[in-house]
Amino acid sequence: MTATAPVVAAAAPKMDPLHHFHVTKYLDFDYLGIDVAISNSVLWMWIAAGLVLLFFHLAFKNPRIVPGRLQSLGEAGYLFIRGIVDDIVGEKGRPFFPYIFTLFFFILFCNLAGLIPGSFTVTSQLIVTATFSLMIVGFSFVYGFYMHGTHYFKFFVPSGVPVLLMPLMIPIEIISFLARPVSLAVRLFANMTAGHTMLAVMFLYVVTLPWWGAWLPFGFTVIFTGVEIFIGFIQAYIFTILTCVYINDSIHMH
Amino acid sequence: MDATAAALIGMGLAALGFAGSGVGLGVLFGKAIEAIARQPAAEAQLAKYIWIGMAFVEAVALYGLVVAFIIMGKA
């Protein structure tokens, strides 16, 4: 995203609905020419990771056979992700469970932490989600070759298709494989950005309208914040499901 | 027409993508309700696929939003 939104800012009275997506540097660091500054994005990534650690630390600090409230929640999260991995990948997916578990909870806490007023939504930066998705798809590609050797190229040859159609089908399969990281990244990024922009626009109405009109958009923001919590969860879930599907593709092929 | 006006029109046109997503959501939930009405016992199982499908359908509309953002960057 560009820093300024001249088109939108011109219409709205000096309020920019995309303002809360700006990355501001707190501490400038430069490591061998690579920009590793501590920005608000980095800070909130740390906070989200810290919250995940704190949550599971508190949940399993003194585990009991009959779990308490927090431990039940932690166990439910654990079983939820294990259910997804077992359903989609099966027994061979167990080695990837820790990674998928971490991925789900990190994205979930990033999404939810972004809803705190004044915070920064880490997952609303395309570069963050693109890093996740390229890592996942790149890994599944490499792992496919590790598992199947050159047989993995058969992945791009759909079965049960006449040979005559092959010159058409193989490029389609390759393109659909290359579209995976793009769609995975853009889905999460766009969902987070769209929801938060919508909230910002509605709050703009709350501020600019007189009091007798402001309750309508204000009520909408209250409801929509609830929807946003739900969307944050659903998007983390989808991201996890698709990660499992891609890993499953490289283990079991079609 | 100057470039800014054209960009604004383009951003508006990018919002047309929402129409497709709207049709998709209508079909998705319509069929889902139909399916649950036929087989109420399957509701819990269907709900999982409904939410996954919803996220996919919604994502299509949001690609339109991304296009609008790209145009905004150029304007």
Q: Brief description of this entry?
A:
The complex is a heterodimer of chains A (254) and B (75). Helices cover 67% and strands 4% of the residues of chain A. Chain A is built from seven helices and four strands; from the N terminus they run αββββαααααα.
Largest interface: A-B, 19 and 19 residues
Structural class of the secondary elements of chain A?
mainly alpha
Q: Would you tell me the overall average pLDDT of chain B?
A: 86
Identify the overall geometry of chain A: globular
User: Approximately how much beta-strand content do the residues of chain A carry?
Assistant: under 5%
Spans where pLDDT lies below 50 across 5 or more residues of chain A: 1-12
Could you tell me how far the N terminus lies from the C terminus of chain A, measured between alpha carbons in angstroms?
37 Å
